[in-house]
Amino acid sequence: MSSDLEKFFQKVEELKPTFKTRLGDAIKIQSVSDVDLKRQMATSLKSQINDLGGDLDLHEFDNPPGLPPLVIGQYPKEWDKSKKTIVVYGHYDVQPADDGDKWKHPPPFELTEGVREVDQKKCYFGRGSTDDKGPVVSWINMLEAYQKANIDLPVNLRFLFEGMEESGSTGLPEFIKSDDGKKLFENADAGVISDNYWLGTTTPCLTYGLRGIVYFSITVSGPAWELHSGLFGGTVYEPMTDLIALLSTLVDSQGKILIPDLSHDVEPLTQEEIDSYKGIDYTMQDLYTATGSKTAIYDDPTATLMARWRYPSLSIHGIEGAYSGPDTKTSIAPKVTGKFSIRTVPKMTVEDISTMVRDHLDREWKKLHSKNTYSFKVNDAGETWRTKPDHPNFEAASRATNTVWGKKPDLTREGGSIPVSLNIQEGLGTDSEGNPKSLVLLPVGTANDGAHGPDESIPIENYVNGAKVLGAYLYEVANEKGVVE
User: Fold this and answer.
1) What is the CATH number of domain 212-266+314-382?
2) pLDDT band at 485 (very low <50, low <70, confident <90, very high)
């Protein structure tokens, strides 16, 4: 290990109390939906990085209006054209904490310290601790450690922090295509995102692929108002019955998608891909721990990971409009809406999947011969993302991770969707040979962190080591010639 990295790591250890305070201050700002609170969070990030020598500003949205600002700019303020340039993305908005009564480490918007029951790890608890405030402030922690260790940052950084990720990144795609966005990405060599998680809790990972998502809703309408089932049951077509019939044609209890031809474009499985799963640190117990049950469809880790990463899935999420309270209510709902989504994989496009689903539901609706009315809607969507894990950018991230954790990271895909990855990939553009510039997903948190749920947390070790990994990654990038090829 170089003497600079040793000094940097030592300084990170010395600054741990400061890092805890920084995370606590970020968690206190309830940047959920209130634009003023989001602006407060954005201003805090801008000020902290600028105080360390950055040149960041708030980008205000004119169209659409009323959005929280982007935090954009460069570090250091004095640009060194001889160094490589890395684009860093993160988000400062968080999910609501309406489930605060379910938190065993309340209140949600105050940092608390404790032991996580599921794996006995010492953690910081609080909304945003792992998604995504913890990773975002880890970048600031890293900058502070470099500065106080009197070491020049080995690369140039361009920051892009948004406040709408949890609501679909409204406005971000348009910004990236704008003149200001193009300027931010100009001459960038590679990109990095820390907005996902380790596959488990013991081995770090680097992520090179994400499934896409298409979110649908079906609405069935019938009577003009709620009816008494004793008076009208058996005499009218009931919307709930029709909706359940439609939903039952989508997927079976084994997870098999029933829509014809939907999986037609899934890439064939090769022996090389099968072999790539063998070294991944993942067991069925990891799944049982993460789900709190043994309700797995498969008993094999490889089959489970394939179902999560390389095959599409369909999940039914809920029904709106029907009575769901504890009392015995015997009414017939006049209108109900079913919600479901499909996680897509490479070569499956949002347009094609939406057409297939619509055609399938239209056929199934006709079979019901119902006098109710039915409508179909695509609520939200994001395409898949995948890059090459053998790129020098990944090799730099792998060496950095190994240096800090003493383990070579697993190369993983993810079952979840981060649509913004495609936007950042588009902003990075292509290299001199016309190939997409490399974007690596370098997670800080773990699979048990409970993002979006009660008792969201991040292991203290991961939070501290997160700054070390990010700093080591930049060091390795600076010494990796292939990053800019």
Assistant:
1) 3.30.70.360
2) very low
